[in-house]
Amino acid sequence: MMMLALSTLLLAAGSSRGIWIAGAAALALVAGLLIGVKIPLRYLVRNLTVRWRTTVMTALAFVLVISLLTVMMAFVNGMYRLTQASGQPGNVMVLADGATDETFSNLVAPDMADLENQPGILRENDRPLCSRETYLVVTQPIENPVPGRPKRRFLQVRGLDDSRMSGRVHGLDLYPGGAWLSDAGVREVEQKSDVNSGNSAAQPLIEAVVGEGVAHVLAVDQKHDLGSAPPRERLDVGDVFTLGDRKWLVVGVLKSAGSTFDSEIWAKRGMIGPMFGKENYSSLVLRTAGANEARKLKDFYNNGYKKAAVLAQVETDYFDNLAGTNRQFLFAIVLVTVFMAFGGVMGVMNTMFAAVSNRVKDIGVLRLMGYSRSQVMLAFLLESLLIAMVGGAIGCALGSLVDGWTANSIVSSGAGGGGKFVVLRLSIDVPTLLLGFVLAMSMGLVGGLLPAFSAVRLKPLEALR
Amino acid sequence: MKFLGLIFKNVRRNAIRSTLTAVGTMVLVFVVTLVWSILNFLDAVTAEKTDNLKAIVTERWQIPSQMPFSYADSLSDGAARDASDVRPLDSMTWQFYGGTVDPAKKTIENMLFAFAMEPDKVGSMLDELELNSLPAAKADSLRESIACLKDKRSGIIVGREKLAQIHKRVGDRFKLTSMNYKDIDLEFEVVGVFPDGRYDKSAVMNRDYLNAALDAYPRSHAGQKHPLADKTLNLVWLRVPDVLAFNTVQEQITKSPFYTSPAVKCETSSSGIATFLEAYRDLIWGMRWLLAPAILLTLSLVIANAISISVRERRLEFAVLRVLGFRPLQVLALVVGEAVLLGAGSGLFSTLATYTLINKVMGGINFPIAFFGAFFIPMQAIWWGLAIGVFTALAGSVVPAISASSIRVTEAFSKVA
Questions:
Q1: Residues B59-70: pLDDT tens digits?
Q2: Hey, are the CB atoms on B20 and A151 less than 8 Å from each other?
Q3: Which of A321, A337, A364 is the last residue of a domain?
Q4: Per DSSP, which regions of A110-227 are E strands?
Q5: Does A244 touch chain B (CB under 8 A)?
Q6: Is residue A450 part of a domain?
Q7: Residues in chain B closer than 8 A to A412 (CB atoms)
Q8: Which ipTM value was assigned to this complex?
Q9: Is residue A307 located within the same domain as residue A437?
């Protein structure tokens, strides 16, 4: 029952509205108790400090549970933020019918021209505002891998016909000093720095616009001489890396932090399609005037368009679907937290039962002084909540230290494979802290309730005997 | 023996406290067992083996790997051309075929993904389904299913859970509307069920059935090949006796002039899986170094709390014991013994219950890491509970026990007086 109640509370508090209500309720409970308890607060605090070892150990259990919950929630928050920030509400993403993800979609070139010339698509210089894309996941051997770690990594490469236009459609820009891909998609340059050795120096370099996240990942491979400048944090314009059998030149770095594009390498589709054996397009992203227009266009492609079988989605819906893994992680977090909290509650109960049995005479005196049963009960409950509040606050503070840390993960709809490798930023927000606070208070409440009831059942004279 | 009896009696003395501590221990050991079972499985599949190892051959640069089926025979032979070349001990090919039983409303439940492969390889190459390592009854049942799959090209062997999700039973027929092979919708007959466990959500079909459908495609499409006709082979698995043989086979394959469009790579299965898991590196790190230790620490705190309360309440009793001739070390052993008894007992009970609940009742833990369907509690986990219980109890009771053993008799009695 207790675990069911904790799970329900966590799930209810998981919604943004629910957490504010639960937080307000927890605060109201503490405030109500502070106002309602007539037994001096100093007496209650003194009882906690006298048995400080037990109090500290109980509070530490709260610290561990709440800090862990905060860290885990920061991870899921980061994933949600990533998927929420990746789509444009006015964009429609067209995949081949039946494809569960970009990875498995195949759109043939002859269909593209007709698809992108339908009413409702914004135009610029008499050209439809759209992005023709070929999405690939490519294996990159890691030069000098760390012993015990994999020798390869997966990189996401997006082949584009017109990268400037794609940037416009996806609402992405470049950092100063960068340039979009040229029409040729390759460049003859003298190499500035070489990430990996290779034997294809004679070939022109493939131009690449890279997301910030993947620029960090690739910088790990940078050769670094001891005694020279410290290793670079990320690749920058002019740097070279190896992928496939070719060398690639970074011509621009996307301002993509916080979106799934952060982990992508953009290159000319005409170069990478043949290189990696994917000649067809995987998606077509079309810009409309707004969210309503995007929904209309999506409906048209799915129900009224007959020239090719396609699956259209509003881009934000596509990325919402990628939150499937987030939901699974969230479920796992709720499960782990509930069990940990349950364990913590057992510790609180032990402490409070001991507090009751140690203070049987105190309870008798309090009752004889005129304090009612409910006052005694509230006093014990408040003690339990005070430990919870302190432990929960420290737990939230410790957990908050991970705010801004980066982590690797995958976002996926969970249906039919696919998904994206992403670098996400752990994020602590007010609802997360409130959730920690609410859970701590709930643990304190549940853990303190039974001992508090046992305290009120004592008869004053028997207690003093 | 009397000493042990005393420990038992002490544990039973405060029933509420012992119960609360035991329940707390059980719950926390349950979570640690789940976390460690997942980590244990991932460690096992990514550990490099030295003999009887499996290699996978995939497209060199791209995932998902899509190779022409014409690669299948020679790759299955390890690209061996001369008599002196090394040949794998066994092999299997995988083609992925996925679809839904309800195209109007696709859900995870009504989708089914099958490995299209040679039926005979189910019992010789699929992990944990090797016929010679399965219990006799399960092996006989699987052998029968494999025979049916060979006889009936449209047959399919499905995991118990997936079968329940699509509301079918052995002998039922159903049509899959393909999601990856457009316009190749196939009718199947369920000819068997996998033994309970790892393959509860999986399915295996006869590869000849898929290939025949692809061959027939041009006849109904104005002579046009299916768009994926030359990309149907996803993986080739090879079993090799040792690392030396693997290195040779790997060289044979990567240096072969036959595999150029697309190029292929050969790696040990553990290496391939490790590459996939790299995306989850931080998550796994968090589970290993944050989650599990935090739970163990919480458990130690719960036990330490209970024991220290108990010691504080029994100071007079320990003083009496000292007067009766108990040495400090015996008092210490008494306190530690109580904690260990409580921890070990509840830990062992917890892992036994976890093993039964997860493996026998729930059919594994569904956790979204890589392509693993479900995780199971390994048999050795039963001893983890005992070990966790003992070690956390020791860690949690040492300080209170030292405090109990160093009690000053006169001081304890003077407080009473």
A1: 998 888 999 999
A2: no
A3: A321
A4: 123-124, 127-128, 130-141, 152-160, 186-187, 193-194, 205-211
A5: yes
A6: yes
A7: 368
A8: 0.80
A9: no
